[in-house]
Structures are given as structure tokens and as C-alpha cells.
Amino acid sequence: MRRLIPPLAALLLVAGGCAPPRTGSLGPAPVAPSTSATVPAGAGPSTGAPVPASPSSRAATAGTPTGSGTPAAASREPVGTVSVQLWFVRAGRLAPTRRALPATVATSHLALDALAAGPSAAESATGLTTLVPAGTRVTRIADGVATLVPPAGFDAGGTVAARTRRAQVVWTLTQFPTVRRVAFAPAGAATGRDDYADLLPAIVVTAPVIGEHVGSPVTVTGTADVYEATVSARVLDAAGRQVGAAFTTASCGSGCRGAYRLTVRYRGVAPGGGVVEVFQVSARDGSRMDVVRVPVTLTSTG
């Protein structure tokens, strides 16, 4: 048996050398739940993980005509609210938030209308904006591709603005289980999230969302492409005093994007305003870099 070890080791080395490089991940596309009665408008669940729609309600999630021309779940009457992730823009990069909106069969229309309406006052205060105009509509969904007919002037403002606008639409619509890619009519290849991955900032925070009520411990989720995959977070009280901190490693980093999840405990804080900061620490001087600030309401200290 000893004579077999060197050839076996050589074989393993060859196989390892042929392995593809780490490519990272954009993180799982969220699945919008069919209904939700507990998520406040402008906020989302503290875990950042949407509740999957039940099999009987998935057909109504995208809410647009199918390839057969038959409206999806037209006979169902939505009840309550639906939690929808919206991708806005901050400093030229995509940034998500989550809204609880009145439930409707046409959820894709609902999401596009919310994109066009733009961020709330609290969201605007953090630098969020939108480039998507009113009247943007999905005309059909077939084989995982949503076809969209943009309104007049949709591609105005230059190449960069037009591409960022399309990225907002693609990242928002592909949260629905029936949509994997988006085609912009009258002509254009279908594109998906990968085609706009370069428009993500170094750190994306999917939870908590702006204005959310959080208790200790607060769960922080998202994706990141940072040095040694190390993501840090801290909680600040209304006076800007750090009351809790933690760090974790994303599933990939230093040249590839990975998903991360961590919890931060905090103490000695009266219920009220606060901020969750997510960042990476500079290897050169220990300063905080690529900081994402999420204003929240602290409900308990744990």
C-alpha cells in the first residue's frame, strides 16, 4: 500500500490544479412572500430572509401574464401585504431596501411602481435615489424571462445612467421565483443579476433595513467583497455611542463576493433611534472602510 501513496498524492495535486478559481456569489435571490401582516412599511424582517411563498401562491408572486397569455392566479384575491425588496441607487451603486406593500396579483407592477416612486424621506436621507421612471411595465413572463417595454426616454441620461436604471429593474424583478432574467423590448438580450454585479458596492446590507425596529441581538445579513472576507458591524445609540460590535467572514472575499450573516448584541440603551453600521477594517491603519449606515429604531437591549 505504501507504493500507492505517491501516485495518489500526485493525482490529487493535478486535480486541485485544475479546479476553477473561486468565483464567489451574489447571494440568494430573495423570494417575495405571498402575504405578510407583520412587516411595517419601509422595513423588513430582522433576519433579512423573506418567507418563501407557499406552492399555491407562487403563481401569483410575479403577477404578470404567463407565456400562455393566461393571467397568473387571476381568480385569487390577495390579502394583507407583500414584502418586496427594492433596489435603489446610492453614489452610483445598487443598494437594497424592503417594503411591505398592499398585496396584489400584479406584484411585478407593484415593485416597479415603488421603484419609480422612489425612496422614502428616511431612505433619501441616507443617500438613496432612483432612476426608474413611472410607466415601466412587464408585458409577459415566459421561461423565466420577464419582457419589459420601457416608457419613452427610459435610456436617457447617458450610458452609465441607462445601465444603472436597467440594473435596478433587473435586481428588483429577479427576486420573484418566476423571473431569472429580464429582456428590454423592442430588442435586447435578456440579462440577469450577474450582468450588473459590478454595480454592487463592496458591502451590501440586506438586513436590517432603514427604519426597521430591531432588538438585541440584531441580525445583519448581506453580501461583500472585502479583504480576507472579514465583515464587521456595530450598533450605535442615538448619541452615536457604540453599544455593541461583532464581526464574521463572508463565504468568499478578497476578489470575490460572498454572503455573510452575523448577530450583534447591545446593552444599556433606552428604546429609540440608533444606527447599525457595517464595514470592513483597513489592514493598513485599522480605519473603517466602505461603511454602510442603516438608521433603525432600537426596541430593547437584551
What does this structure look like?
The chain is built from five helices and 13 strands. The chain is of the alpha+beta class and 302 residues long. Strands 7-13-12-9-10 form a five-stranded mixed sheet, with no helix packed on it. A hairpin with a 5-residue loop joins strand 9 (230-236) and strand 10 (242-249). Residues 1-23 and 31-77 have low confidence and may be disordered.
Show the helix and strand layout.
Blueprint: H1 5-18, H2 59-62, E1 81-90, E2 93-102, H3 107-117, H4 121-124, E3 137-142, E4 145-149, H5 159-173, E5 181-184, E6 203-207, E7 213-214, E8 218-224, E9 230-236, E10 242-249, E11 258-264, E12 272-281, E13 288-298
Parallel strand pairs: 4-5, 7-13
Antiparallel strand pairs: 1-2, 3-4, 6-8, 8-11, 9-10, 9-12, 12-13
Helix pairs in contact: 3-5
Protein name: Gmad2 immunoglobulin-like domain-containing protein
Pfam families: Germane, Gmad2
Biased composition (Low complexity): 48-75
Distance between the termini: 58 Å
Helix fraction, binned, reads: 10-25%
Strand content: 25-35%
Strand order of the largest sheet: 7-13-12-9-10
Q: Ranges with pLDDT <50 over ≥5 residues?
A: 1-23, 31-77
In the residues, how many domains can be counted? Answer: 2
Radius of gyration computed on alpha carbons: 21 Å
Anisotropy-based shape: globular
Give the SSE order as H and E letters.
HHEEHHEEHEEEEEEEEE
DSSP helical segment count? 5
Q: How many E strands?
A: 13
Structural class: alpha+beta
Averaged pLDDT, please? 80
Largest sheet: 5 strands, mixed
